[in-house]
Amino acid sequence: MNKPSPIFPIFLAAIIFALIVWSGINPHDRAVWYAEIIPVASVFFLLVATYRIFRFSNLAYLFMSFWLIMHSIGAYYTFADVPFESINRFFEPILGENRNHYDRIAHYIIGFYAYPMAEWLLRRKLCNLPLALFFSLFFIMSVAAAYEIIEWQYA
């Protein structure tokens, strides 16, 4: 099996790094920026540090980059103030709410981390496919729930 080209993850890393830097330049609320960018920077630098030890598939890096990108943008604007009008107009008649749905989409996208978790478990031969799917889904749900509790306490 041929190894995937390393260009794609490096390209994503450059975009994410640029977004992290951009988001730190005069964000709308510096305290919110710190609270939101610390998890992004932690995950980003963990992925960079472990790149040579364990190389995820390009699809896994793509899935992980969605959350990193959305969270970096949310850190700059604050999630409630991200300019997201066209998507909000789409959701308003469906959900019957007049609010910014960027936050909801970003919360949904954290679930994409279940794929790289399952990939890691399977490639390391730590379990079979059904258990990897089960564990990765519940792992990311637990991490997301813990993050929400911490965010709630912080707010």
Structure overview:
This protein has a domain at about 5-110. The chain is mostly helical and about 160 residues long. It has helices at about 5-25, 30-50, 60-75, 85-95, 100-110, 115-125, 130-155. The longest helix has 26 residues, at about 130-155. It has seven helices and no strands. The model has no long low-confidence stretch (mean pLDDT about 90).
Radius of gyration: 17 Å
How many β-strand stretches?
Answer: 0
Order of helices and strands: HHHHHHH
The proportion of strand residues reads under 5%
Q: Which residues sit in consecutive blocks of at least 5 with pLDDT less than 50?
A: none
Largest sheet: none
Based on secondary structure, the structural category is: mainly alpha
Helix content: over 70%
Mean pLDDT: 88
Q: What's the overall geometry?
A: globular
Task: Compose a concise summary of this entry.
The protein is 72% helix and 0% strand. It is an all-alpha fold and 155 residues long.
